[in-house]
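Notebook entry, structure prediction.
Reason for the run: the old model in the group folder had no record of what sequence produced it. Starting over properly, with the input documented here first.
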Amino acid sequence: MSFDTFPLAIVARRIALRDLGGLTQTKEAIHEVRMTWLDALWRDARYAARSLRATPSFTVVAVLVLTLGIGATTAVFSVVDAVILRRLPFPEADRLVAVGEVNVKGDSEWGANLVAPQNFLDWRARQDVFSGLAAIGYASISLRPAEQKEPEVLTSQAVTADFFPVLGVKPLIGRTFTIDNEVDGNARVAVISYRLWQRRFGGSPDVLGQYLPGQLGDLEILGVMPPAFAYPVGATRPTEVWVPYVVPPENRIRGNDFSYYLRVIARLQPGFSLQRAQARMDQITAELASETPRWFEDRVAKVERLGDYLTKQVRRWMFMLLGAVAFVLLIACVNLSNLTLARISSRDRELGIRSALGASRWDLARGLLVESLMLSLLGAALGVLVASLGIDLLRTSIPAELPRVAAIAIDGRVLAVAVIMAVVTGLTFSAVPVFQFSRPAARPALTQAGRLSTATPSHQWLRAMLVVAEVALAVVLLVGSGLFLASFARVTSVNLGIDYHDVLTVRIRPLVGPREKDVALQRNPALLRSVLERVRAIPGIEVASLIGGGEMVPLSGNLITKDFGVPGRQVSPHDIDFTEISPDYFRAIRVPLLRGRFFAGTDRQGSEPVAILNDAAAKHYFPGEDPIDKVVRLQGTRTVVGIVGNIRHDGPEAGWRKHSTSRERHRTLRGRPRRSSRSFVP
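New structure, fully documented this time:
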């Protein structure tokens, strides 16, 4: 401070001390005001507790209503928060996107947008808007049994080299894959999870360079991921092993077979927007379509936020469910407001006395607010307890395929929301009574008429309006619930084309086989036929069959597309969904035979190639004529021997696909037991 301003500061300090008093006196005055406010609040709390104890029936009903309302809302919010609202646990998660393919004429907006390997390879080579583009495929790894133990099946994923850099996660020890590992000769490597490292190797730092004894070959361990790393996020069965995804030779060229089974994720370049990435992918798709038009008939690329992609199938109905329970809580608030209004009407004389003794409007309002907040906080505490008990039930009743199911829990975020709900609920249901009864001018005089008064006309009007509001909210909730149930009933009554009741599905892999994959695959057909015959011999099995591909089961949305044609005529589209099955497959899932016959035991390699079409394909490719005994082009030429009913392979909300089947290789067993036989089910 300069010399010129120093006297002015001295003068200002003296004036402040003269007007406000000394520093010590000012501190004591502030402390006294604070203590006075806290004392008043404590008195109100004790008075509210005595008042609530004096009316146990009202207190019990109010707490019970609040417990159920806040408990239900808390439980549902914990699910919505874990599945929908939380950010993905990866660095700069807002730059993570999913890149997929969409059939503009056939795919649902909730589809998985699976990508063909050929398109992924071209995207990766041509794109310049992503810092990395990674593909995720299916992998199945089981370890050779030790002594007499059963083989251990590990949850696995086949991923490309950019998978870990795209998610922005580095291994705890070791390294991840490089693009050199995406070829057969260098693909016998693995990155393992922290959980598997601890369980199988005891957390030894010497794990690098050791081998997992896979049944189809040992896998050298390159690295261990951190404890918190998981993809998919919050899966009920976290991935334990990641292996390099090797594109099969037949999927490196654009032939006549179309297989869509990869999920593709990417990380945007810094400064690039989602719209710019979509525009660039549209440009790349247009370039590829000009080179190979058949591959892009009605197909486009779609770029969307990874978080939205993972939750898009459940986002809408989860918010609807949260809105429904919030409506229930709102109805509870209106109900409690009416009960509180009626209860305070009986305390009219008491409030009049307090007003006559000098209680201000704020004093009366504060007492009523404290009473309501005590009720709502008690109800919230019990509601959180009820929600925590119901979380396990919710977690087990929710389908395992739902993203981040394992992350559902009552944590700090949920508790904070519960407290906020309690405060808002208390303020909401006490607002009308507080406004009505905290006005000293509205207090009746201390007369006999005032003591006998129970409710003035204005009080009765308010209570009537609250009843109307409660009924209106209940009607809205009932109408919404009715529409929701009607939609659910329509979905559950949709003809799926199959009878899935009492059908068991088992994915089969050789338990003990040769070390080399090619030799094992040569042995599989004979092994699977032997397994099928043994399953059919089990008492209680009505019918059993095999289907090719572990992921090609009905309602999964996964199908292989093959080139299709009819000799001598032009057809469009030139491809058809394709599945390889054994005889009795359609009998196992009870798909009706419309014309012709099912496959027979004589339809095998070396016999005349045959095919079965579904009704949608028959009507599309053979309009107005009988397709039986017609020749089609499908992996060579085949004779159509049967027409079966349609199956909704993409789920109840999707339409019918044009579909064909043949007899070839199989990997998945399907069986239907007799209703009276359940002893063989574990």
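Summary: The chain has four domains: 1-54, 56-84+312-488, 107-297, 504-673.
The old model has been moved to the deprecated folder.
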